[in-house]
Structures are given as structure tokens and as C-alpha cells.
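Researcher: Next entry: BTB domain-containing protein (Eragrostis curvula).
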Amino acid sequence: MSPAAGGDKRLRSASSIIADTTRGYHILKIDGYSLTKGTPTGECLKSHPFTLGGHRWCIHYYPNGDKPESKDYISIFLHLDQSVSKAVKACYQLNFIDDVDEKTLAFRGVRIFESNGSRGFTQFMKREDFEKSKHLKDDSFAIRCDMVVINEFRVVQEKADLVDTPVFVSVPPSSLHEHLGDLLRTEKGADVVFEVGGETFAAHRCVLAARSPVFSAELLGMMKESDTAGVVRIDDMEAKVFKTLLHFVYTDSLPKTKKEEEEKEKEKEEKEEGEKEEEEDVMFQHLLVAADRYNLERLKLMCEEKLCNYIDSGTVATVLALAEQHHCTGLKKACFSFLRSPENLKAVMSSDGFKHLSRSCPTIMEELVAMLGT
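Model: Predicted structure:
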């Protein structure tokens, strides 16, 4: 019997051969066409060299043909203007510039260019027909050379998968974080209470212990024996910070910012927005400290990322000191990047925060001086 209800499983594997290419074009404009007609057959006028695909090229224009058989024609060639140890593969098109259509531009087969080799058209256009054509305007015309240089071919293996297998069951994304968030909100089954900043928070020992080794030691280790009342007091932390930390522990995310329900006057809204940003800045600083305290590395990195968006001349000294004290490598680099600007550095150096940073974190100053010296 088939292992999959309703059909057989067949493993499909595939690979692709991909050409690494470089595309581009060069335009050669000839001003004073009538003056070029004096060039003898077999002699060419050259464009300025141009580089494409790591090789040097130029266009050869023969006003009276490149050989006696084509003396009544204009000859145009693409020339590899260098010596190469390995032949160069390329596709090209040579057209009058007013004949080029980007939508229908199609290349002929791949051509091989040896050292200082040329490829093109001996009889590009009969000179008599050209002089009556739309291409010659005010004794001038232009040639466009479109190119694709093939650098190398590489093989890419595609991911193997099962095909021709009907799907009977659709598995929804995980909702574990929602269920745990409900547990925190309803306090159902809670077996421990935290007192933080004058507020109490009910939680579940097993959830906290599973998420944080520090909580595990405090709630399931030796400290559990002494916690007879079931109340754990946490000092040196604001209630709103601990509430946000608990939200992360249960949902692995930060709570969303509440939107304003009513639209306010523009001036008042701008003022409140500025105060809100400052409040969020401080909030993420305190939350980072809490995350470090309870060894919640992902939360700590999330706070680092948020704080990177609040770095300015007024906050960088405080944020840099915080990054140094709590070993936040990425946040520290972001602060240094901000201070690389002479204008930013000048504004920060006159602040009280920078003076405090100089006294409290001398190693930071040494790193800053070393960075500015590079």
C-alpha cells in the first residue's frame, strides 16, 4: 500500500547550470562623418577603450571597409584590446543607436575572442545607402555595442522535494506563545507571586525556570525552601520593566505599543511623541539590564537592536556606558559608528554625559581614541 494516502511519493532532484555574466554597452559617436571618408580601405578609427567583464575592449570603425572586397561598405568590429591567456567568451550586437530596442534586444550565439581578436561585420551597411538613411544626421551618427561577457559556468543543486503527493492536512503555525500569554494574563495555575515596585505579579515557576537559568535557581533550587510565603521580592527594578520581561518570557516577544485612540492637536501630539520616544529609550535601557540579570540573551539582543535606533548626541554616552557594562558588542559598535562623524563627536564631547563616561569607563575612551586614529 502507498505510504501516502491518495498518491505515491516521488523524490524530485534537480540542478541548474548558471552562467555568471557581466552585461553592458558602449556607444561610439562619429561627428564629422564626411571627414572620415578619407580614411583608406583597411584602416580603422578606434573608440576609446572600455572595460567590461574584467577585460578591455574597443570598437573599430572602417569608413571604407576593412578589405578591398568591402570598400563600398562601412565595416564595424568589436575588438578585444589586450592579450589573454584564456580565450574570452562573449555575445554582442552592433547596431545604429536609433535601431536599438531594449525590449527585443537578442544576442546571437557565444563568440570566442582570442588575444587582440576582433569580431563584427565586414559589410555592416553599404555606404551609399547609409548616406541616404535616417541614421546620418547633421554629418553624425552613433553605433551602440551591447555585450554579455561570460565569466564562468557554475552548477547549483536545487533542494530535493517530494512531488505528486496530495496534501490532505494543513498544519497551522504554532500558537504556543498565545496559550502561554493567556496563562500569564489570567493567572490560572500560578504558583508564585513577585512584588516589584509596589505591584504584584502572579506567574508559574515551571515556565520561568524553563526560560531562565537564573529563575530556575531561584524558584526550583535552594531558594525555594526559604520561599514559604510564595512571594518573591525584587528590588532595583521598576514594575513596568518586570511586566515587560514577563511578557517576553511567556510569548518570546515584546508587547506592542498601544495606539492613540483619539487624534489630538498637532502641537500636543508632537510634544507627546517626543516624550514617548524618550520614555521608550529609558525603558529599553532598563529592560536590557533586566535581561542580562536573568540571562535572557534573546531579549537582551532585542533591546540592543531597539537602542541602536535611539542613539543621538544626547544619549550616546549613556548607551555606550550601558553597552560596556553589559557586554553588548553590537550596541557598542553602533555607538562608535555614530561617533565617527566629526560633527557628532564634537557635539557629544561638550556634554556632561561624555565627561561622566570619561571618568567611569576609561577603557572606552582608549578604544575611542584608537578608532579615531584609524
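Model: Note for the record: The first strand starts at residue 10 and ends at 12.
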